[in-house]
Design brief:
Layout lengths: L3 H7 L3 H35 L2 H22 L2 H14 L3 H37 L6 H8 L1 H17 L3 H21 L6 H26 L10 H36 L2 H17 L4 H15 L3 H37 L8 H7 L3 H16 L3 H26 L1 H21 L11 H21 L8 H16 L1 H13 L2
Helix pairs in contact: 1-13, 2-8, 2-11, 2-12, 2-20, 3-5, 3-6, 3-10, 3-11, 4-5, 4-7, 4-10, 4-12, 5-6, 5-7, 5-10, 6-9, 7-8, 7-9, 8-9, 10-16, 10-17, 11-13, 11-14, 12-13, 12-15, 13-14, 13-15, 13-18, 13-19, 13-20, 14-17, 15-17, 16-17, 18-19
Length: 497
C-alpha cells in the first residue's frame, strides 16, 4: 500500500486540506467565544436564581433538548451533508431545494411538538419536576423549539457552504443576546432566562436567513416540481440520522433527566455548574463539525486514501487537545468551581472531576460519527450510538439512585468511551484508521503519566486556587513533550494547503 501522505499529494488534496485547517481554526475560535459567553450566562443565572430555580431551568432545557433531537429526525445533519454534495457539484438549485424541504419538515414537526408540550406541561412541571412555580417559564421555553429549528437550518446551510466564519458569527450572536438579556434582566425571575433563550433564537434566525441569501444566494423556496425527488433523497439520508441524532442527544442529556427523576432540582442545579466548565474544555468538538462536509466531498469522489489520512491527523489533534484539557480539569476541578462560581457550589466538584475524564472520548466519538455519516454508513453509525445509549441508560438506572451526581457523571463518561471504541472498530474494512495507533498510545501514556505526577503533589480534592496553576503547568508539560506528534499532523495540513 502506498504511503497516505504521498497519495494525498498526488491526488491534489492540498486546497481541500487547507480549507479544512482554516475552517477548524475558525470554528475552534468561535467555540471558545461561545463557551465563554455560556459560562458568563450560567454564572449570572447561578448568582441571581436560587439553586433550585437554576436546576429547574436547565433541567427543563435538557427535557426540551430531547424533543428537539427527536423532531429533528436527522434532518439537521442531512441538510449539511446533502447541501455540501450538491454545492460541490455546482448544483445550487438542488442545494436550495434540499434546504427548503428539510426546513419546512423540521418546522412543522416542531410546531406539532409545541402543541403536545402545552398539553402535557402541567404533568411535566408538577409531577416530573415537582416544581409548580416553573410552569409559565416552561411554557415560554417551549417556543424555543420552532425558532431553534429555523436557526439550525441556516447554520447547517452555512456549514455546507464552508462558511464557518459566518456560522460562528451567527452562534456567537445568539449566545451574546442570551447573556445580555440575562445580565440586564431582573434577578430572581425564572421568566428572564426563558425570554433570553427564546428571543435570541427568534431574532438571530431572522437575521441569519437574510445573511444566508445575501452571502450565498441560498434561500427558502416554495414547493415546486423538484420537491418530491428532494424529499425522497432527504428521507433516504435522514432516516438513519434520525436514530443517531436522537440517540446521541439521549446519551448526552440522560444524566440530567435521570438526576431529575431520582433526585431533585437542587442536584440538577449543582450538576449544571460543572457542565459549562466541561463545555469550555470541549471546544475542539468543532473539528468534527468542519470534518463532515470535507469527508462527504472526498468520499463522493472515491478518495478513500485521503479520507484515511485526514481522519488520522484529525484524531491525533483531537486526542492531544482532549487529554491536555482533561488533565487540567481533572487536577483542579474544585479550585476552578471556587474561582468561577463560588464556594457555595463546591458540591459540583465530584461530577466535574469525573466528567473531565470523558473529554477525549467525546471528541473522538464525535469525529467517528461525523466520518461515518459522511461516508454514508448510517446503519453502523446508528448501531454505534445505540450501544452507547444502552450502556448509558443501564448505568444511570443503577448508579444515579445510589450515587447521585457522581453516578450520572460516571454513566455519561463510560457511554462516550463505548461510542468511541465501537465506532473505531466499525471502520474495519473501509478506511485505514489504525495506522496512527502507535502515536495514540504514546499520547495516552504521556497523559496518564502526567496525571499521576499531578496527583502526587496536588490531590484532586484540593480547592486551593494555586492548584489551578499547577494543573495548567502539568497540562503544559504534557503538551510540550508530545508536541512533535501534534506538529506532524499540523504540518501535514499546512503542507497540503
Amino acid at each position: 500500500m502506498s504511503d497516505p501522505e504521498s497519495a494525498a499529494k498526488e491526488e491534489g488534496g492540498g486546497p481541500q486540506a487547507n480549507r479544512f485547517w482554516v475552517a477548524t481554526v475558525v470554528s475552534i475560535g468561535g467555540s471558545i467565544g461561545i463557551g465563554v459567553l455560556n459560562y458568563f450566562t450560567r454564572y449570572t443565572l447561578a448568582q441571581n436564581l436560587s439553586i433550585e430555580d437554576f436546576g429547574f431551568f436547565y433541567g427543563a432545557f435538557a427535557f426540551l433538548s430531547i424533543f428537539l433531537s427527536i423532531i429533528d429526525l436527522g434532518m439537521g445533519q442531512s441538510t449539511t451533508l446533502l447541501m455540501a454534495r450538491h454545492l460541490g457539484l455546482g448544483d445550487r438549485r438542488a442545494a436550495e431545494s434540499t434546504y427548503s424541504v428539510l426546513a419546512i419538515g423540521r418546522l412543522l414537526l416542531s410546531l406539532a411538538s409545541v402543541v403536545l408540550l402545552f398539553v402535557i406541561s402541567k404533568w411535566v412541571v408538577y409531577d416530573y419536576f415537582n416544581f409548580p412555580k416553573g410552569h409559565q417559564s416552561f411554557l415560554l421555553l417551549c417556543l424555543f423549539l420552532p425558532f431553534s429549528t429555523i436557526l439550525g437550518g441556516v447554520v447547517a446551510a452555512l456549514e455546507a457552504s464552508g462558511d464557518f466564519m459566518s456560522r460562528n458569527a451567527v452562534l456567537f450572536s445568539q449566545y451574546g443576546i442570551i447573556f445580555i438579556v440575562v445580565f440586564v434582566g431582573p434577578g430572581g425571575d425564572l421568566m428572564v432566562p426563558a425570554v433570553a433563550f427564546v428571543g435570541s433564537v427568534a431574532f438571530t434566525g431572522i437575521i441569519a436567513n437574510g445573511w444566508l441569501y445575501w452571502r450565498h444566494r441560498i434561500r427558502f423556496r416554495l414547493p415546486g416540481s423538484t420537491w418530491p425527488a428532494t424529499a425522497k433523497e432527504a428521507w433516504g439520508t435522514a432516516r438513519w440520522f434520525a436514530l443517531t441524532t436522537a440517540g446521541f442527544s439521549f446519551a448526552s442529556t440522560l444524566d440530567v433527566l435521570m438526576l431529575t427523576y431520582f433526585s431533585d432540582v437542587r442536584a440538577v442545579g449543582l450538576y449544571n455548574i460543572a457542565l459549562p466548565i466541561l463545555q469550555i474544555m470541549m471546544i475542539v468538538m468543532a473539528l468534527s463539525t468542519v470534518f463532515a462536509p470535507s469527508v462527504a466531498r472526498l468520499w463522493a469522489a472515491g478518495d478513500r486514501q485521503l479520507v484515511s489520512t485526514f481522519f488520522g491527523h484529525a484524531t491525533i489533534i483531537s486526542l492531544w487537545l482532549g487529554l491536555a484539557m482533561s488533565l487540567g480539569t481533572f487536577l483542579c476541578g474544585g479550585a476552578a468551581i471556587k474561582v468561577l462560581f463560588g464556594e457555595q457550589f463546591l458540591e459540583a466538584q465530584m461530577p466535574l472531576t469525573i466528567l473531565s475524564l470523558q473529554v477525549p472520548f467525546v471528541l473522538i466519538s464525535q469525529l467517528v460519527l461525523s466520518t461515518q455519516a459522511a461516508m454514508n454508513r448510517p446503519a453502523w453509525m446508528t448501531g454505534t450510538v445505540g450501544v452507547g445509549l444502552l450502556v448509558n441508560a443501564g448505568l444511570n438506572i443503577v448508579l444515579v439512585p445510589r450515587y447521585g451526581m457522581g453516578g450520572a457523571a460516571a454513566s455519561t463518561a463510560v457511554s462516550h468511551a463505548v461510542i468511541a471504541v465501537v465506532g473505531m472498530v466499525g471502520f474495519r474494512g473501509t478506511i485505514a484508521v489504525w495506522n496512527n495507533a502507535g502515536r495514540w498510545a504514546i499520547i495516552v501514556l504521556l497523559g496518564v503519566g502526567m496525571a499521576a505526577l499531578g496527583l502526587r503533589f496536588a490531590p484532586v480534592s484540593s480547592i486551593d486556587p494555586w492548584s489551578i496553576l499547577w494543573a495548567i503547568g502539568i497540562a503544559a508539560v504534557f503538551g510540550l513533550i508530545s508536541l512533535p506528534i501534534l506538529w506532524s499532523s499540523i504540518k501535514w495540513l499546512i503542507r497540503h494547503g
